[in-house]
Amino acid sequence: MIVVTGATGNIGRPLVRALIDAGEQVTAVSRRVAKVPDGARHVVADLADPASLEPALTGAKALFLLLSGDLHAVGASPAELIAKAADAGVRRVVLLSSLGVATRPFGTTRIAMRELEDVLRVSGLDWAILRPGGFDSNALGWAESVRTQGIVAAPFGDTGVPIVDPADIGEVAAACLVDDRHVGGVYELTGPEVITPRQQAEVLAAALGKPVRFHELTRAEAKAFMTESVPGELADDTLDILSSPNAAELRVSPDVERVLGRQPRSFADWVARNIAAFR
User: Fold this and answer.
1) Cα-atom radius of gyration of the chain, to the nearest Å?
2) How far, in Å, CA of 200 to CA of 197, rounded?
3) What is the pLDDT of residue 50?
4) Which terminus, N or C, of the chain has the lesser number of Cβ atoms within 10 Å?
5) What is the pLDDT of residue 111?
6) Which is it for the CA torsion 224, 226, 231, 237, positive or negative?
7) 33: burial class by Cβ within 10 Å (0-12, 13-18, 19+)?
8) So what's the pLDDT on residue 232?
9) What residues in the chain have per-residue pLDDT under 70?
10) For residue 106, what pLDDT is reported?
11) DSSP single-letter state for residue 218
12) Dist CA 32 CA 11 (whole Å)
């Protein structure tokens, strides 16, 4: 049995699907009751309460650990989740970390994530760490404004990074959960090219076959929107990267291809699969 936390999200859904397609038994964990792919067992648990994860971990051999926004906040104790996994007899944990742990190690949320990585490394478990950059699926935050106004609103319109398709992250995670060759691996996951928010708007316009106008937000406006779903420290760390990415954050990593044997999917690929959200 493999346990997938965040199983109903942009990474968890393709990960659960990939594991089921590979013949694995999967327990899909989410905070609320939700539909999961056929063939998966569903368990409701709130990772902010590590004890609530215990029923999902019974009999599990591996765990994919994805932290929700509140578990990045000051005072959270995500290390307890690794201890719960070890106590339950789980043998392998694949942790979704962040590229910023390597590229901006002194941000508040980066320090906390690096500490969690270190806890996992010394846990005695098999482990792998995934460090993605920005996600293609963040564009879903524009879906309503594109549908109703034909507008993409974002900060730093002409500054880009190589954002990654969450489906690629899910497939890399699946490989790390089942393949011993990836034990001890630390993978930086990016898309195939640097793309700016303005260029993303152009891709959406081409896929929709109608104009999509780009509107540049101020940093303060962008932070106000982001803090509706993530802690302020995480929003600030993210905006620091988006405003002025360093050389490491602009680098296109070979790790998706190294694990999956193919190039990472482009933003246009992601849009083609998700265009219904913008119509």
Assistant:
1) 18
2) 5
3) 86
4) C
5) 86
6) negative
7) exposed
8) 83
9) 69-76
10) 84
11) P
12) 17
Question: Which of 263, 135, 131 minimizes the C-alpha distance to 189?
Answer: 131
58-66-243 Cα angle (round to 5): 175
- The dihedral built from the CA positions of residue 221, 222, 223 and 229, taken in this order, carries a sign that is positive
φ, ψ (nearest 5 deg) of residue 266 = -85, 170
The model carries a pTM of: 0.93
Look at residue 76 in the predicted model and tell me its pLDDT. Answer: 55
CA-CA distances (angstroms) from residue 126 to 118, 123, 155, 192, 193? 13, 8, 40, 29, 32
Both tokens assigned to 225: 């929107």
- φ/ψ bin of 214: left (φ > 0), alpha (ψ from -120 to 50), beta (otherwise): beta
| Cα atoms in the 13 Å half-sphere on the side-chain side of 215 | 12
Please report the pLDDT score of residue 68 as a whole number: 72
Residue (of 21, 1, 195, 69) closest to 29 by Cα position: 1
